[in-house]
Amino acid sequence: MNMSNLVRSGANIMMPFILVYGFYIVVHGHLTPGGGFQGGAVIATAVVLLMVAYSRADVFASIPKNVLKNSETAGLLLFIGTALLALTAGIAFFGNWLLGAGSLFGTPVAFGINPGDINTGGIIPILNIAVGIEVLGAMGILLLVMLGGMKGDAE
Amino acid sequence: MIELLVHILLLAGLVISAFMVWHMDDLISAAIAFGAFSFLLSLEFLMLQAPDVAIAEAGIGAGLTTAIFVIAIRGTEKDGGASE
After folding, report:
1. Low-confidence ranges of chain A (pLDDT < 70)
2. Over the stretch B26-52, which tens digit does the pLDDT of each residue have?
3. Of A128, A129, A150, B58, which sits with the fewest C-beta atoms within 10 Å of its C-beta?
């Protein structure tokens, strides 16, 4: 059962903006309010909007379950892998081995009040992105499984 | 002063939308009223200087929970004249 044309058009128009806002919250997690969990939930809202607006057959055809499952696993592996890499750098588990290295996210933080530089924080942005991917996959698979438990509606 | 006014408006809206969830006969309307309740609650969190909680409430409460309710209601069948 498709929702009405109005609902589907609204979902099509709203979805890219919700996606961009969610990615913004995830990537700026170490500078502004929000972070991996909140941003991942907002991205999952965009995916769920499609599930609500379109019929069951369309959803299962266009949103593959394996992609969501693999993204959840990849997020968890990235999180624990980033934490374990600190051991190879000679510091404690979850130590910030990227901080001040000058490479990715390695710029030292400026002193005093400043507008904020996204290229700071060491491993914290990487952990935020990992949590964002994981929450996106988990919420998506939750709703997809729930949709799969419904009685089949007329095509 | 203006802040107190916004607080009072938001709290009144919370009470009204919570009453609407109970009052609506149509299940979809009740789910949408619950989404409005979550949205007003996230605005109240923002007014109370907790933007982190406000984003989580807007994403989980107003987005995902409403979608779960709508999907669950779509899975049911309308039974004629089953009020009370």
Report:
1. 1-2, 100, 151-155
2. 888 999 999 999 999 999 999 999 999
3. A150
Q: Tell me, yes or no, whether A155 lies in a domain.
A: no
The percentage of residues in chain A with a pLDDT greater than 90, rounded to a whole number, is: 29
Q: Which of B68, B71, B78 to mutate against chain A (most A CBs within 10 Å)? A: B71
Average pLDDT over every residue of B5-22: 94
Å from A45 to nearest chain B CA?
Answer: 6
Q: Does B63 touch chain A (CB under 8 A)?
A: yes
Q: Residues, chain B, total? A: 84
pTM of the model: 0.83
Domain ranges of chain B: 2-74
Contact call for B67 and A49, based on CB within 8 A: yes
How many Cβ atoms from other residues are within 10 Å of residue B6's Cβ? 12
SS3 A144: helix
Query: What is the 3 state secondary structure string of chain B?
Result: CHHHHHHHHHHHHHHHHHHHHHHCCCHHHHHHHHHHHHHHHHHHHHHCCCHHHHHHHHHHHHHHHHHHHHHHHHCCCCCCCCCC
Q: Is residue A153 part of a domain?
A: no
A93: helix, coil or strand?
coil
Structural domain that includes position A101: 5-148
Does residue A13 lie in a domain region?
Answer: yes
Query: Is position A142 within any domain?
Result: yes
**What is the ipTM for the molecules in this complex?**
0.79
